[in-house]
């Protein structure tokens, strides 16, 4: 038998049938969720383009350049990130010469090379090195599915169908769509809702979406509101798992649950919520996965960067090899895309390399990879600050601890002279308990990869508490870093329960997590009527302690090995980390719970008639035709105008002379100088706005001529936005009319 085994050689690793079925189950769930708000033909085109033009070429490059092949979850998730990066770069190049409709051609070129060249074929299509175990695969599938269902319920399930109900909208999605509409024709992107002036913003999501639109011919509304969020989010979950697998204890210790737990915590955790009437900061990936597409892409690229950076910092034996050189190529590619995907990424990654540099220096080891990584991050960030953002900070200011005035606990404590301090302590305690596994990493801190991730985590926290933006947008520093924090917390918990010396510690973690959800629910209900924060916190801490004691007692009664206090700590930490997901889980069925964490619909969207008129304009006008409209405010009350009116530019895909003016570079500069809300500032050129509106309210030949001289070709008269004079048709040609809007063409 031994001789026969030697003749056969070692068996090549490969994914198990059970593991493949777990992946198939998640894929089926994803397809079902997408099918709920898209036609079968749209879904087929989107799936085909995503797989053939993004995923497969990215998968090939990930394996060919980086020499990877650990497991299919990692390779497919990272491959999607690399494919998206390649798609953006090719689209930028092709759009600059007017060939954006052919930007997909790079994908078949890569695939042909991957199949035709024998060396490339061997490296790309080989079996994986460390396939997931069946239990691990199903745990990962379950955690991903739960997070995915919550995101869907409080994303598409709450806001779709788009542009049909003016009382159920989210203006930021129209803003994202307007930028994607500009990306179809403009390099660089322009502010379509404000005459097409230049736009300084992280816009690579919009270029990626424009490339998909040209490749599939699917309407931008369906892409942004219904389809594109899901593959980005799924790939991000896969990379959370991949990053955890690099740091977690080996499979032999029974910690195969660490990766799935990290996915669950990153998706829904982040903040223990003891207060019944206030949410303590939404920092999990589920909060922004749907409503902030740039953040969704940013998290994916940030995680891919972290995976490559950790491998480069730890690969002492690979230096100088083709795999190491290829991974530097991947790092450069991902850093370039990070520069325009989300502005928060490179500062966090740079801080991670700085931490690694210090640790390597103190350990008297080569600091070259950390130095080069930090230099790359700094160089690309400075270049992006100049070339992409034009030196603009988008309203970011250095105001230490101002965040704690903007977050929910502060209004509850405003009468207390130490309100800001108490608000900060409450918020930080909430975040610390939700990631309490961090405090038990032990010897893992000697790992340069773990130190790099710690630098990312610390930078995310400092960026949030030391700066401020309108709408608490500085939270995006922590939201970008939080998946990394979840990874470290899950690894720390695995390290803690690993001290018990029992592979069945997964049972302890699972039971403690479920009991944590129950105990925190009881604590919230019992303390709901208590004033202030002291009572709710005492109930919450008592609930966590009770779970820890109960789990430890049962563990020892079952005659399991290990120290009682280690079991108690493991139970309490698991209860806090999993229990932090209580309110998001309740949000699946409860609007009251959802409003503490997730965004709620806004007023000020378009009616179906208004949207139909805007879409008529897109079909019957030429790209670049300028539109004038009388609609500027999604909400107007007491002399204040919320100018986040973007949907006309988004749906028509044409520049509008003056639609809204929020989220423009000029609005941000004025808001920063006057310390005001950029969505509520008045338009800075009142004469220009008056000249625009008078053409609708009291048209004269002179008023119409001013619009013609400004280059206006079309008038979009919105009857819900204000009075429209019947005399207007005497000066222009009526072209289209609906219940709520009329479109005219200048003669």
From TrEMBL:
Keywords: Membrane, Transmembrane, Transmembrane helix
Transmembrane parts of this sequence: 20-40, 46-64, 99-116, 137-155, 223-243, 255-276, 296-313, 325-341, 370-390, 421-442, 449-470, 476-498, 505-525, 537-557, 564-585
The keyword Glycosyltransferase appears for this protein: no
Transmembrane found in the keyword field: yes
Name recorded for this polypeptide: Uncharacterized protein
Organism, as annotated: Kribbella sindirgiensis
